[in-house]
Design a protein that fits this description.
155 residues, alpha+beta, 5-stranded mixed β-sheet, 6 helices, 17% strand, elongated, binds FE2/S2 (inorganic) cluster
Amino acid sequence: MDTTIETTITVNGTPVTRRVPARQHLIDFLRDTVGLTGSHVGCEHGVCGACTIRVDGEILRGCLMLAVQANGRKVDTIEGLSDSGELADLQRAFHEHNALQCGFCTPGMLMAAQDLIRQHKKVSRDEIRTHIGGNYCRCTGYQAIVDAIEEVING
Ligand code: FES
Ligand code: FES
């Protein structure tokens, strides 16, 4: 039987305390235990970026971190950033540029893009492509995604 460990994680500003299996990944905790299914799970190997979340202000792969490793830390998900309005400009730009089709990659893509926007610097299209290079999209060919991010960053 899996050992469970009491763990408290501040999720989108609200402390959540649960006994979690020692081997449960953070993304599964967020989706299955907390019910925040906006972050997706694709490869489960740290490759596709679908599970991108923010931990203590830094984006990372939720499938590469155990829930118990997030004990005492602050986790923000696509739901939190969306509800706070932080993503409003990006969401509008993605909509206007048709930067999504199936939408599977979109939450992770928005989290990665917003991480670049928060740096408040002008960037080239190549730099945008590099920054989102760890977020795979099977549908769009990336052009419209880069267009949308570029519009928000560079105006
Ligand atoms: S599901 Fe985490 S990187 Fe693919
Ligand atoms: S919109 Fe389908 S994977 Fe990106």
